[in-house]
Amino acid sequence: MTENIVVSDEEAVRIITMRRADKKNALTQAMYLTMSAAIDSAQANDAIRCLVIAGVPGAFTAGNDLEDFLKAGTAASDTARPNAAMTLLRSLANNTKPLIAAVDGVAVGIGTTMMFHCDYVIASTAAKFSTPFIKLGLVPEGASSLLMPRAIGHHRAFATLVMGRTVSAEDGQAAGFVNQVVAPDQIEAETRKVAREICALPAEAVAISRKLLKPPPEELLKRIEQESALFGERMRSKEAVTAFQSFLARKRA
Ligand code: COA
User: Fold this and answer.
1) How far are the Cα atoms of 25, 78, 155 from residue 103, in angstroms, in the given order?
2) Using a 6 Å cutoff on CB, does residue 86 contact ligand 1?
3) Is the CB of 63 under 6 A from ligand 1?
4) How many domains in the chain?
5) What parts of the chain have a pLDDT lower than 70?
6) What's the rounded Cα separation, in Å, for the pair 240 and 235?
7) Is residue 226 a part of any domain in this protein?
């Protein structure tokens, strides 16, 4: 558990809020595990009919904490991607409840790749999606190499996932992975409205239909593991370690 993740149940909606504003919601190991537990514990809970992931004003999340990446990349023992991130990714792949993302500000790395596990994405006009994996010497994660090209087409996915181009809320909507674009001060109210709309539907019929719409979890989990093995190797590469160090040095300068 960590105070950087706040989990609140509002009637049938579980709202998972990332709250580490001073670090733009960069995700620590404890944050991943707490988010994962909040998703997992909702699965068998019939009272929860919808999940929401949100951030703070101006930051959905800056992605994995780069200090943690640097530690893992320079650790003496061979290591795959830090396990806590994998724990969250597995929870997302196995999740059976409708999942809404409410994105204001930066959504970096896993902050963008988790959109493709969501069922409904509400972005503010200030949302900025980016996956700088390759610029960091890494490779895509979270089954994004499978889900993103399927959702938005190979060419757009290449520009985002490989070239690391930032995608605005409007471009995300045109690409098809953002449902709605709203003013930043409207995002909370709009998210609650959409969540209530989903909760009002017959839960069993929603669950069956959602399952039909999505790739089977086994397919996602297989790709997540494949990506993770490559990600773990890349994290230890000179390209990656240099990129982590230069981000952290930039901030310390
Ligand atoms: N890991 C660790 N710390 C991070 C971080 C991350 N991923 N992202 C931001 N931070 C920290 C910064 O070091 C800074 O800390 P400091 O105030 O102690 O120096 C603080 O959060 C604010 O970040 P800052 O860069 O000043 O904010 P910004 O608004 O100018 O830029 C970002 C925001 C997200 C664009 C920028 O911080 C960034 O590029 N972060 C790295 C994102 C990344 O590569 N994530 C990994 C994806 S795989």
Assistant:
1) 12, 35, 24
2) no
3) yes
4) 1
5) 78-82, 251-253
6) 6
7) no
